[in-house]
Write a structure and sequence with these properties.
There is one protein chain. The protein is mainly β. The chain has a domain at about 135-235: Quinohemoprotein amine dehydrogenase alpha subunit, domain 2 (Lipocalin, Beta Barrel), CATH 2.40.128.120. It contains 3 helices and 18 strands. The protein has helices spanning about 10-45, 70-75, 135-140; strands spanning about 50-55, 65, 80-85, 95-105, 110, 125-130, 145-150, 155-165, 170-175, 185-190, 195-200, 205-215, 215-225, 230-235, 250-255, 265, 280, 285-290. An 8-stranded antiparallel sheet has the order 9-8-7-14-13-12-11-10. Strands 15, 16, 17 and 18 form a 4-stranded antiparallel sheet that branches. It has a 3-stranded antiparallel sheet with strand order 2-1-3, with no helix packed on it. The protein starts with 11 loop residues before the first helix and ends in a 7-residue tail after the last strand.
Length: about 300
Amino acid sequence: MPGHSGRLPPSNLSLGISKTWKILLALLGLFLGWFGCLAAKEASVGVFENYHYVPPTNGSGARWLRRPEVPAASFANLRLMPLFRAVRPDAWVRGLVPIYSVELDSRTELRRLPGRGQENFSEPRFFALPNEDEPPEVAQITGRWEVSAIRSDKSPATFAWELAGDPTGKVAGRFEQLTDFRFAYLTSGWFRSNQLSLTVEYISDRYAVRGTWAQGGLRGTWRHSEDADHGTWAAKSTAVEPPVWQTSEVVPLYEWSRPNSASRYYGVQAPEPNGDWEKAARPLCRVWRLVSLHP
């Protein structure tokens, strides 16, 4: 036939197969991209990073920041030097304690618990080791907990807690902030001898939560303050495993203060060798020396 190339036109079947392969390849690309992002996130969990002291400025108190968080101008103008290494707060890490930055009227403090009334919008600044002489309850209760609760009518509820404990037995924290439970507040709490007690306020209601720690989990009961409802609950920790380090790399992190001054400084040594800074009697926590742990 004149003008015919000798090739048959593609059939509907071959077009369908070609289109199917394109769809499969596109889905595979999406899956590999998602998996890569997930792997990168998992790889970042439990990573040590240098922390810098950024002096107070107009409208901002002193800050302790990771290098990527330090403004470029501050880093260049102030010639900032790293002070210590700690585990960055990508996830709650088993055996480590969170350190919070608490803004006060006249200064910024690093604390083991979030500020009173600031619990629901406080994120850990970094994770560190508790002091060697602290009771085991501190590490037992500290972490992220997935909670399953049962109401008196047998209906279920699931949510998460982020809890932090200190050496005195005090517990503070918050509900997971991505659910309706973000409107609930943990107004007080303690954990001693494997016994947990929390007071929860949710809008205009108040609840008493009691529980026991055993074999790495928590289990107990809850009750409305006016007996309007009650039930049981159980929780399991979702904390990730900590990174590996050498004992010789661990050093105490102290709070330093000046007489007749509201300023505070946190480091493994005084900010000025010949200054009038006074070291607190006890370390805030333990951090790591400025060494490269994982090249």
